[in-house]
């Protein structure tokens, strides 16, 4: 029986729940750059778009075909479903790296397709004959047998198949082999797409200078012709006043490059002096001493335009970064005694093999801060993204 719209939708929801959730848990374990929360969110998006795809299937089927959707089109549906789900997740800043998403989507898509083509026909034989409906199926009725006249017998049409020259049993086997091969190839090869634009934090020699990442914060920054910057938005528009003996300013010269001497982040249990990170002759960042935090000196300094990057070990100086939350305040003391106050925008945890180089180092017109905590044992990085909100002058200047 040709699948009904209700049957398609019911089957999609049931398989996404019964097979999709276990696959999401497995994918979060197998794929290093995919968290369980990200996998479940991706499953919701994939299922929602899949329901829309089923609506399109049904509409085209009623206009073009008398039977079920051709098998080759079922396999080709992988491309638009994979692309659309990644674009939706990316629009909400929740997408995994492209290769990881393709591998995960293929696992979910393959599990649903396998359940529809193999598992349900075996466990629920009547499912196929009830329009694939799992609920509200029409009870079967007995139709009186009739003997058609020879001249009225319809002409049998050949079934559409990917392998028309093979026997039915061979056709099913060939289709299964093709399906397994495609799924396995995507799952194994898709993560390779991530290697061109990501690398670990402690071994990343690259910087994006002037092109690439644009700030996504809701704050607005007005840069004056003389190089001063005024911050509007969360934490901005701070009133002039006194703090620690110096004036607290919402406008300061972002051209001034002053070495950071100390970072204090009470909520993240961070309070440590800073040293300048060393570089090899090849320009590769050397992992700092585990007992010391370091400033990436080839990037911006705290208070300058662009992201200032501070690096430390999650086993010692940055051990409390997992306590960081958006909206919390932190401060960097500079060599002249002045202080730059920052507000946390977001916190993320990534695998070192998929380090978001562009988002951490990419050029920006705003004065930003990145705290990058590394764990050599697990290969994970915790990254705190923050933006500057004010400057406290040194007591001598105030």
TrEMBL record:
Q: Does the keyword Hydrolase apply?
A: yes
Q: So where does this one cross the membrane? A: 12-31, 37-56, 68-89, 101-124, 173-193
**Gene3D superfamilies to which the protein is assigned, alphabetical:** Sortase
- Renumbered to this chain, the Gly residues biased-composition regions fall at 233-247
Superkingdom per UniProt:
Bacteria
InterPro entries noted in UniProt: Sortase, Sortase_dom-sf, Sortase_F
Q: Which Pfam families match?
A: Sortase (PF04203)
Alphabetized UniProt keyword annotations: Hydrolase, Membrane, Transmembrane, Transmembrane helix
Tell me one GO molecular function of this protein. hydrolase activity
- Where do the segments described as Disordered lie? 198-247
CDD domains per UniProt: Sortase_F
Q: Does the keyword Lipid metabolism apply?
A: no
Could you tell me what this protein is called?
Class F sortase
Which organism is this protein's natural source?
A: Nocardioides cavernaquae
């Amino acid at each position: 029986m040709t699948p009904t719209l209700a049957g398609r939708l019911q089957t999609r929801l049931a398989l996404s729940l019964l097979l999709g959730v276990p696959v999401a848990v497995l994918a979060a374990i197998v794929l290093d750059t995919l968290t369980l929360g990200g996998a479940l969110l991706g499953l919701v998006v994939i299922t929602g778009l899949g329901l829309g795809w089923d609506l399109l299937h049904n509409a085209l089927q009623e206009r073009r075909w008398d039977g079920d959707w051709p098998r080759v089109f079922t396999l080709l549906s992988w491309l638009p479903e994979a692309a659309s789900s990644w674009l939706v997740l990316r629009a909400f800043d929740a997408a995994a790296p492209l290769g990881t998403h393709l591998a995960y989507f293929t696992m979910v898509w393959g599990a649903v397709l396998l359940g529809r083509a193999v598992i349900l026909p075996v466990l629920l034989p009547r499912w196929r004959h009830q329009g694939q409906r799992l609920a509200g199926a029409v009870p079967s009725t007995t139709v009186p047998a009739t003997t058609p006249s020879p001249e009225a017998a319809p002409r049998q049409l050949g079934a559409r198949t990917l392998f028309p020259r093979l026997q039915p049993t061979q056709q099913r086997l060939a289709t299964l082999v093709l399906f397994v091969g495609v799924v396995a190839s995507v799952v194994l090869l898709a993560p390779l797409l991530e290697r061109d634009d990501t690398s670990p934090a402690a071994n990343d020699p690259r910087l994006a200078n002037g092109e690439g990442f644009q700030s996504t914060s809701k704050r607005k920054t007005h840069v004056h012709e003389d190089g001063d910057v005024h911050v509007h938005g969360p934490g901005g528009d701070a009133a002039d006043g006194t703090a620690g003996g110096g004036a607290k300013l919402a406008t300061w010269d972002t051209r001034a490059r002053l070495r950071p001497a100390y970072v204090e982040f009470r909520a993240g249990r961070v309070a440590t002096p800073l040293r300048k990170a060393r570089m090899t002759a090849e320009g590769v960042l050397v992992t700092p001493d585990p007992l010391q935090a370091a400033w990436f000196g080839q990037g911006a300094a705290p208070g300058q335009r662009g992201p200032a990057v501070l690096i430390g070990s999650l086993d010692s100086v940055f051990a409390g970064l997992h306590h960081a939350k958006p909206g919390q305040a932190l401060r960097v003391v500079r060599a002249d005694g002045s202080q730059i106050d920052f507000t946390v925008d977001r916190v993320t945890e990534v695998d070192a093999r998929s380090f978001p180089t562009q988002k951490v180092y990419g050029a920006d017109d705003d004065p930003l801060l990145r705290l990058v905590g590394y764990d050599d044992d697990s290969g994970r990085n915790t990254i705190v993204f923050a933006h500057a909100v004010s400057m406290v002058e040194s007591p001598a200047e105030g």
